[in-house]
Amino acid sequence: MKDTRNILLLVVSLCLVGTWAYHIYDKNNYAQEPVVVVKKDTVAEQKAVNDSLRTSYSKTLAQLDTTARSKDSMNITGYAVKTSEIDNLRNEIYAILNLNAITKEDLRRAEVKLKLLQQKIGTSDNGNTEISKQTKTSEVKNPVVVSSDSKVKPETKTVVQNKQEAEPVLLNTVNISFRAFQAAAKDQPTTKADDAGYFAVSCLLQNVMASFTDTDVYLVLTDPEGNVIQDDQWQAGMFSTRSNTRIPYSRKSSFSYAKGDTKRITVNIKPSEILQGSYSLQIYHNGTRIGKSDLRLN
User: Which residue in 25, 101, 127, 283 has the fewest CB atoms around it within 10 Å?
Assistant: First the structure.
């Protein structure tokens, strides 16, 4: 009996020891497992930031002065350099905001470039920007009238306010191609004025925020002497900018556009004479310049 009891006690003791050993082993394994940190889903946040930047970007483009970008403005010292910087920033921002897998770092870069673009627009053309012209103004008239009893009576104050014009919704230009082609050889680009026979212009137009019905895009090609090339009386004409300034254009393209699509414009312009010097191509939509490219022929 004693032997049996001792055996039972030994078995129970071994079971208890095994249970505690397993418990300690399992606890150590659990403690060594890496802590899983559940990261908050930031997709919605990044989309909100992206949409906000797109809105600011569109408003910034609407502030570009169209009058200062006419042929008279191209005589301003340093203007070509500044407009080139503005166009480069516009293209860089648009490319970032249209990345398929945009990251927080991309959004930060876009925000920095957008602020720089706004600064350059605000300081270009000696402050003579379209947005400064459209700022609300008030005129207060307060003349004094001397009556027969020599008492001074102020005239009633008249306040006149001009409402700020609504900012237009614009298409964005992407991948502008502006080249001269030889007259003798087909589809052969050239940088020599003597060999050039015509200019080929193409670009992509996009807007991921809006659609357009029967909208117009104008191409303005200017020669080295500052004259707008109008080689075809049926395809050329004049249009109005946002400041109600009438300027000539070389080509006009009318179309309807669905939000998010890509619209390609391709035209050939054949002047009667191609001179040596710098040619400037400007693209307008809703009265605002949305793209620019320069070409120099030797």
Answer: 101
pTM of the model as a whole: 0.56
Distance of alpha carbon 275 from alpha carbon 283, whole angstroms: 22
9-59 residue pLDDT tens: 777 777 777 777 777 776 666 555 555 554 555 667 777 777 777 777 766
CA 2 to chain centre: 94
- Cα 258 to Cα 16, 59, 160, 272: the distances in Å are 76, 20, 40, 37
Say if CB 217 and CB 284 are below 8 A apart. yes
Cα(11)–Cα(154) distance, rounded to whole angstroms? 114
Domain ranges of the chain: 43-133, 172-297
- Residue closest to 46 by CA, chosen among 106, 115, 87: 106
The domain made up of 172-297 is a member of CATH 2.60.40.1930: yes
Give residue 118's identity as a one-letter amino acid code.
Q
Closest by CA to 216, choosing from 245, 246, 240, 198, is 240
Which of 58-92 are b and which e, b meaning 16 or more Cβ less than 10 Å from the residue's Cβ? bebbbbbbbbbbbbebbeeeebbeebeebbebbbb
